[in-house]
Design a protein that fits this description.
Number of domains: 1
Structural class: alpha+beta
Length: 114
């Protein structure tokens, strides 16, 4: 039997990656996300945190927003990489199998999740 996503996906996270040269576009994008969507915004990390190998901030959102937020990020991401993953309660699977990359994909530090 095929799993029903509505039964296992509780929420999503989008992680916007940036560096010293792209801090300003990342801040601008962050403001636009907050203005346009009902989300929960995480901290602006100017260092790698957890499994994320680059500076980032997290955008937490409900599954109902996926169809509007992710396409919006696709066309408004300012050439930044955005890593989107489902949140099911299994951190490894959430960060390896239930993922979407907008822009360049980069290897995650999965040991940080173990």
């Amino acid at each position: 039997m095929v799993a029903n996503p509505k039964e296992i996906i509780k929420s999503y996270h989008a992680h916007v990656y940036f560096d010293a040269a792209t801090t300003e576009p990342a801040r601008e994008l962050r403001s636009e996300i907050e203005e346009n969507f009902e989300i929960q915004m995480g901290r602006f990390h100017e260092k790698p945190v957890g499994p994320h190998p680059k500076w980032s901030y997290q955008v937490a959102f409900d599954p109902e927003l996926f169809g509007s937020l992710v396409p919006w990020l696709s066309v408004n991401r300012r050439s930044l990489t955005v890593f989107v993953h489902a949140c099911t309660g299994d951190e490894i699977i959430d960060h390896t199998e239930y993922v979407y990359w907008l822009g360049e994909s980069v290897p995650l530090d999965l040991d940080a999740l173990r």
